[in-house]
Automatic annotation (TrEMBL):
The keyword Ion transport does not apply. This is Cytochrome. Keywords: Heme, Iron, Metal-binding, Monooxygenase, Oxidoreductase. InterPro entries: Cyt_P450, Cyt_P450_B, Cyt_P450_CS, Cyt_P450_sf. PROSITE patterns: CYTOCHROME_P450. The keyword Secreted does not apply. The lineage of its organism: Bacteria, Pseudomonadati, Myxococcota, Myxococcia, Myxococcales.
């Protein structure tokens, strides 16, 4: 008899990301799965939970057999459809995560030069100015919630700088970014807010179209949007629909992730006095601290999603065409087969094998921007407030796919 399991033979999956305590520490549950049921079917989530490093990386690298496009899901026309606002279609139709391989490669080639470490480095003074302004306001308050008062506003404002959104359009642009984020979890949206969110999205789309047209007429120097409009490779250019989808992907990919990178890093530093002292003595370790937090205390709850393009076998399990997989990168980065002593937080660990920014062709486009925002924010916080203290333990809120850090209340104690 074959050793391979199918969905009906697979062990029932004890996975429950909505169980009390999961957000605070999901890692014992993942260890249990890696040990006893590394690929198991989760009925409520209609998908396979994949927990070992090797299987996660295999699926991420194999775009021929595993697609990130929800249209490839067996339930796309029923369960998938309810989850979206029509306005989202406009900014996701050509999104990097749904494009077919050749189109993806083409768009990625055109946009990648705008997101290299050098290309995002020129944003440093602008990000520093945003952080300084937020920290001035925070210092005046004395006690702050790092998530709401500091981390939350950073990505939208950094994105506004990145795209050089004119001053008079900053407020509607920020409303648009909030609406896009809210539309990702329509289940959590109170019915009375739905129309306002859709209106903000429609207005934001008009604003973006106008901004793209203006930039075509009036190109700017050192401007990513101008670079993207002008980038041409062998006569090939990005269309307006592709530019809109790219901005949508930057918002979807770069907002909650960056807020959580900052929140979780500060939470780890404040809960570990020895780490806090070490970083004050050696601030250059902040860089690796961010990577180790993403490995050791990743804020993801449901990992990365893929859909099998054909009947496949992964880790001894038979997966049918169209079935969904949740690739648990958070569990993978605690797999002892890939990381020695994975439960230990080690600020000097070699983190090159981590998959917090993905792996393969969909590897995070915004990785250098995320690192820049994280390093500037955490570095400036530690420099300005070396005596800051946690007021109470961090608290988590509900979120369908993230361990949502809601409050990180800190007394800043600025030195005079
Ligand atoms: C800590 C911060 C961040 C984390 C942990 C993160 C993580 C990821 C991961 C895991 C993927 C791969 C998704 C998959 O394979 O299904 C991804 C893709 C992507 N990320 Fe990020 N990201 C972060 C910040 C950002 C920022 C700041 C931006 C943009 C400004 C961004 C833009 C994107 C885009 C456009 C993709 C799609 C790339 C493609 O499909 O080719 N991300 N990110």
């Amino acid at each position: 008899m074959s050793q391979e399991q199918t969905k009906s033979e697979a062990k029932s999956c004890p996975f429950n990301p909505y169980a009390p305590g999961f957000d605070v520490n999901p890692y014992p549950a993942f260890k249990e799965l890696r040990t006893h049921a590394p690929i198991s079917y989760w009925d409520q989530g209609h998908g396979w939970i994949v927990t070992r490093y090797e299987d996660v990386v295999t699926a991420l690298r194999d775009n021929n057999r595993f697609s990130p496009n929800p249209a490839d899901w067996e339930f796309a026309s029923t369960l998938g459809r309810a989850a979206r606002f029509p306005e989202m279609e406009e900014i996701s139709s050509s999104s990097l995560l749904v494009l077919s391989d050749a189109d993806h490669a083409r768009v990625r080639r055109l946009v990648s030069p705008a997101f290299t470490p050098r290309a995002v480095e020129w944003l440093r003074p602008q990000i520093q100015a945003i952080v300084d302004e937020l920290l001035d306001a925070a210092a005046a308050k004395g006690t702050v919630n790092v998530v709401n008062d500091i981390a939350d506003p950073i990505p939208a404002r950094a994105m506004g700088s990145l795209l050089k959104i004119p001053k008079e359009r900053e407020v509607p642009f920020q409303r648009f970014t909030e609406a896009v984020i809210k539309s990702l979890s329509p289940i959590m949206l109170p019915p009375e807010e739905v129309e306002a969110v859709r209106k903000d999205m429609r207005e934001g789309l008009v604003l973006l179209r106008e901004t793209i047209e203006e930039r075509r007429r009036d190109p700017k120097e050192n401007d990513i949007l101008t670079t993207l409009i002008q980038t041409e490779e062998q006569g090939d250019k990005l269309s307006t629909a592709e530019l809109l989808s790219l901005v949508g992907a930057l918002i979807v990919g770069g907002f909650e992730t960056t807020v959580h990178l900052i929140g979780f890093t500060m939470s780890n530093i404040l809960r570990r006095p020895e780490l806090f002292a070490q970083l004050k003595a050696e601030p250059e370790l902040i860089k690796n601290t961010l990577e180790e937090v993403l490995r050791h205390d990743n804020f993801g709850k449901l990992g990365l999603t893929r859909y099998s393009r054909e009947d496949v076998e992964l880790g001894g399990v038979k997966i049918k065409k169209g079935q969904r997989l949740f690739l648990m990168t958070n569990s993978a980065m605690h797999d002892e087969a890939a990381f020695p002593d994975p439960e230990t937080f080690d600020v000097r660990r070699n983190t090159t094998a981590t998959v917090s920014f993905g792996n393969g062709m969909h590897f995070c486009l915004g990785v250098h921007l995320a690192r820049l925002e994280g390093r500037i924010t955490v570095g400036t916080l530690l420099e300005r407030f070396p005596d800051m203290k946690l007021v109470k333990p961090p608290a988590f809120g509900s979120h369908p796919s993230l361990r949502k850090l809601e409050t990180l209340e800190v007394q800043l104690l600025a030195r005079s």
